[in-house]
Amino acid sequence: MLLVIDVGNTNIVLGVYDDKELLTSWRMTTALNQTSDETGMFIYQLLQQRKIDINALEHVIISSVVPDVNHSLINAIKKYVQIDPLIVGPGIKTGVNILIENPKQLGADRLVNVVAAIELYGAPAIVIDFGTATTYDVISREGAYIGGVTAPGLRICADALYQRAAQLPRVAIKKPKNIISKNTVDSIQAGLVYGAMGEVKYIVDTIREEMQEPTIKVISTGGLARVLDDDGSLFTEINSHLTLEGLRIIYEKNK
After folding, report:
1. pTM of the entire structure?
2. Tens digit of pLDDT for each residue in 181-204?
């Protein structure tokens, strides 16, 4: 079995694969000050809770955009799972030609998503990940990564309103029934969600025009993708496990 781990700025997502089948997955808060023992025990307890035999794990692969977490996480895996993990980074085989000015600047999570999108859905494609930031990654018809867009995430925008405007409350991110709102909470939610929908539509349409690819596929992932596209009009596909799938695929290319 394969343990895959994606370390993001807000959450760490873990999954266990038996060949190509995702058996189970978890999401935990990214904690910068945890020791390797704290991290290792927490992962061990997660596996126990889902009745996954830790001795049945044969391989581990990690992608991370939070360097401060890497040392304790890698040591936790070595100590508690007793496996030397494969790390997504320079030199790893992905099969993707990265056509940007400095390929080393491409985040590991974005690269992993691109690999998964090409393998699962083909090219050309736009991959949108609704995480701490909202990222748009563009794949050419030839299957190369040609660049992308980075925008503030929905939660960042919501937190900024709460922190910077004294009389505005913190709200859940959900789509109100109408865009014209009759109370403060609905008004904030409408601005966040309908604003994000407008952002997505404009950026996607502009990418399509710039690439001259009017029917390019739009693959989305991240917890808020379904909030924005409850009627299926924005995205070709929503895959909440896209990053985990990408890690599995990259491991297979490197084993």
Report:
1. 0.92
2. 999 999 999 999 999 999 999 999
Segment 26-53 shows an average pLDDT of 90
Looking at CATH, the fold of the domain delimited by 2-87 is given as Nucleotidyltransferase; domain 5 (3.30.420)
* CATH 1.20.1250.20 fits domain 122-240: no
* Beta carbons of 26 and 65 less than 8 angstroms apart: no
2-87 and 122-240: identical CATH topology: yes
- Counting residues of the chain whose pLDDT is more than 90, the rounded percentage is 85
The per-residue pLDDT for 36 is: 92
Cα separation, 182 vs 164, in Å, equals: 22
Q: Check if 109 is active-site.
A: yes
The tokens of 53 are what? 């035999």
- Domain residue extents for the chain: 2-87, 122-240
For 167-184, give the DSSP string. Answer: TPPP------S-SS-SSH
**Among residues 19, 84, 109, 229, which one is catalytic?**
109
Q: Quick check: 27 and 11 in contact, CB under 8 A?
A: yes
Residue 32 token pair? 């910068």
Mean of all residue pLDDT scores within the chain: 94
